[in-house]
Every structure is written in structure tokens, then in C-alpha cells.
User: What shape does this take?
Amino acid sequence: MGTVEFLEFVQTMLNILNLKIPSVGLKINDNIRNPITKENCSSFPFLKEFADLLTVWEDNSERELTKKTCLATKHTCLAASDLAEYLLDSENNDFDYILLAMFNPWK
Assistant: This one.
């Protein structure tokens, strides 16, 4: 993966995790910036794929992230995905959608 592809991957991850307003995706016609719902849960696989990429990145001796940065980002992606999935799948949920920015540590 080249630099451009990696940066686009990071930008997509940040767009998913920093979504604060439900209508942003509609205004700019960007599906990745739509809120996570039961019908639109394409962000789950992406966040898990990003965590897998970081594992590969961490194991690659030529490219280096600090261990803390890599670990924190992996845990954030996996926890955000799992949390949203749990909230949408709960039997007594009252959530129509999930905005992950409300849970992420990078406010």
C-alpha cells in the first residue's frame, strides 16, 4: 500500500469515527459519512479492516508507528465498531442511528 492509499484509508477511518451530525453524508453525498444504522452498517467491516491493517503495519519492520499510537488506534477502531454493533443489536434499543464521535477519545 502506497502513501496515497494509506492516507485515504486513514481519512476514511477518521470520517467514520468523527461523525457528529446525522445529515452530513446526505449534504455532501458521501455514504461513509452517513450515521451507522441497522440498514447502513458498512462501517463495521471497514473499522475491523483498518485494525487488521495496523497489525500488519506494526509487524512490518520498514514502516513504523509508535506502539502506543498503533495500539490506541486499533483499540479505538475495534471498540467503536463493537459498541455500535451492540447498541444497534440490543433487544431493547432505542437507537435509530449511532454517531461514533460521541464515543471517541479524539474530540
Notes: The chain has a mean pLDDT of 81. Residues 53 and 98 are 24 Å apart (CA to CA). Residues 3-102 form one domain. The chain has one domain: 3-102.
